[in-house]
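Q: What changes when adenosine-5'-triphosphate is included in the input?
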Amino acid sequence: MITTENLSKRYGAATVVDDVSFTCPPGTVTGFLGPNGAGKSTTLRMLCGLSTPDAGRATVAGVPFRRLPNPGRVVGVMLDASAQHGGRTGRETLRVSADVLGVPRGRVDEMLDLVDLDGSAARKRVGRYSLGMRQRLGLAQALLGDPEVLVLDEPANGLDPDGIRWMRGLLRQFADGGGTVLLSSHLLGEVAAVADRLVVIAGGTVRAAGETRVLLQGHDDIEEYYFGLTAAARPLPTTTSLPMPAPTSATSRDGASR
Ligand SMILES: Nc1ncnc2c1ncn2[C@@H]1O[C@H](COP(=O)(O)OP(=O)(O)OP(=O)(O)O)[C@@H](O)[C@H]1O
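A: The predicted holo structure follows.
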């Protein structure tokens, strides 16, 4: 189970996560969806104890992440698949994690098999991995401690269509076994196929949340629906190459009409 209650975070004057509350029950996959800058990563970082909320709280399996004695045995986290030590091989990376978690080293090969990194990939330095291979290694690392919860920031990033299908199967299996999955994405189409539930965030606030089937019911064009939910919070393009209207007496200096 994952719970966030009235979670908020400010950077300077900007509130980038604003009163965000949702739950992810065991046995389900929840898609955490939103455009660039929506506040997804900031929310996940607070959930995983990497950033302190200004207000509200988040728990995993009923406990704030930082109070979990051995967090990796409860929650598998992949927030940035590129943040691996480039000089270690895939197998060495997992062995170090296995030692930290206190799980038998035999589990390393099980996880390498599970994520389809073969012997030669396991011997390769991570610095030479493709983005898709890093995502697979990140998933192996997240699963190493046999957690009950998975928190994954854009796990499909860099995977080809086969890889995305494979990952969906893996997450489905994890949830069907009673696990809780929260995964973020920019793309509704990418997660709608696997997510039982959706939380749509934009401009730091939750725009919609609930069962995927119920939320998308009656929307023939789900991408258009999603765009509509988030469009109001999309930042305006700031590129200077766009033609700017000449100031008129009816327009103030900041561009707002009087
Ligand atoms: N450490 C920080 N200092 C200042 N502002 C930050 C910091 N981290 C994030 N932000 C700002 O908070 C807002 C939300 O960022 P966040 O990374 O959570 O969004 P996101 O939904 O994960 O976006 P993306 O899909 O592009 O990764 C953005 O405007 C971002 O610039």
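Observations recorded in class: Strands lie at 2-11, 14-24, 28-33, 55-60, 75-78, 149-153, 180-185, 197-202, 205-211.
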